[in-house]
Structures are given as C-alpha cells and as structure tokens.
Amino acid sequence: ETGVTQSPTHLIKTRGQQVTLRCSSQSGHNTVSWYQQALGQGPQFIFQYYREEENGRGNFPPRFSGLQFPNYSSELNVNALELDDSALYLCASSRNTEAFFGQGTRLTVV
Amino acid sequence: GNSVTQMEGPVTLSEEAFLTINCTYTATGYPSLFWYVQYPGEGLQLLLKATKADDKGSNKGFEATYRKETTSFHLEKGSVQVSDSAVYFCALSSSPTDSWGKLQFGAGTQVVVTP
After folding, report:
1. What pLDDT is recorded for position B2?
2. Could you tell me which of A42, A53, B27, B80 has the fewest CB atoms within 10 Å of its CB?
3. Residues 6+ apart with CB under 8 A from A63
4. Smallest CA–CA separation between B107 and chain A, in Å?
5. Mean pLDDT of the region A87-106
6. What is the predicted pLDDT for the residue at B26?
7. How far is it, in rounded angstroms, from Cα B105 to Cα B33?
C-alpha cells in the first residue's frame, strides 16, 4: 500500500472523446508524475507537476494536459482520444525521495 | 538522450533457481538507478535502488550493483520463489539535477517461476 490512489480503476471511452484521470498523492508529497504504460511495455513519462506547476514533460502531444491542486492531488486530461491512447496510466508521488506509484487507471479507447 | 535496455522475457525458471536480469543504460551525468516490480494487476513497487557508482542496492533477497564502467545494473537473486513471478523494470533518474519521479524505464522483463 503506497498511499497513492487513482480513480477510476477502469474506463472505456470512444475515439474522439475526452477523459480525466485523477490521482491523490501520498500525504506530504508535493510532486506528482504521470506515466503511460502500453500493454507489454515499460511506463513512459508524460509530465510532472511540482507545487501546482508543470515541471518537465515527455514526448507527448499537447492534447495530454494536467493539473495539480493545492492539496497536491492531480488530474490528467486527454482530449480527442485515439485508439493508441489505450493503456494503463500510472501516477507517482514523491517529495525529495523515491516515487511511490498508484495502481493505475486502465483506459480502453474503442 | 537517456535510455534503458533490459533483457527480453519471459524468463522461466524453477523455484530455488538463480535469477539474473540484465540491464544497461545510456545517460549523461550520474543517474540514479532503480529496479521496480509489477505484480499482475498492480502498479509499480520499488524493489531497490542505487544512487552512485559501486553502490549495491538490496531488498527481499534481490541485489543489483551500479557499475559505471559497464553502464550496467543487473538484478540478481540467489533462490527464487513462485511469489517472485512478476514483471521487473529497470529505470533511471537523472538526479541529482533532476527531481525524483522523472524516470526512464526499460521495456520490462517477465519472470515466471514454476514450483
């Protein structure tokens, strides 16, 4: 149990729709990172938020966006969903130490 | 850019066998290195880490040594159990200039341990 909670655990969306995924970070952690894990692959870094500001971004298009709130929880938004966006989305929280991962949200785009 | 390469799986072995999973990396500077484990249907759990050359990370019988000369961080366990069946990911973080949580992962190696 890492104390990092993601919701929902699973969802199915139609191509072209928008989706919002949520992450509650471990208490005291001010940094949240998001990853996309396609089936059979390693997680790919999407972006990181530190104290409500974006603090680095991976090779993902602008339709992937995020927010971090004053309580350090975070959202990942994906617009204009594509079939290739189907993946496990992981968030990880940290504070000057190792990153603790949530169990992920499984997104299926049909 | 940074990259992590690890041996392809699946690796299938019998209980009490010796396990090695190879991991090599490419990075500028002095990255920190990690092994994460992912059990079926779960997120990632940190298994062990090493933050500087020649450091040895260890946990639950697993070990890995940070070898800068060979840019490697191979994972080993002397006697595996069925409960070690999982997918193992090697990862690096470009600390200390980069903050924790910006991790570059390898593709993962599935390990299957049979009784």
Report:
1. 86
2. A53
3. A78, A79, A80
4. 4
5. 89
6. 94
7. 10
Contact (CB, 8 A) for A30 and A97: no
Contact B2, B27 (CB under 8 A): yes
With CB atoms and an 8 Å threshold, state whether A102 touches B42: no
Instruction: Please report the beta strands in chain A, taking only residues with DSSP state E, as ranges in sequence order.
Output: 5-7, 10-13, 19-24, 31-37, 44-50, 53-57, 64-68, 74-78, 87-94, 100-101, 105-109
Do residues A102 and A5 make contact, with C-beta atoms less than 8 angstroms apart? yes
Asked if pLDDT for residue A95 goes beyond 60, the answer is yes
How much of chain A exceeds pLDDT 70, in percent?
A: 97
A29 pLDDT exceeds 80? yes
Q: Which residues of B touch A (CB under 8 A)?
A: 4, 34, 36, 42-46, 49, 89, 91, 98-108
**A29/chain B closest Cα distance in angstroms:** 11
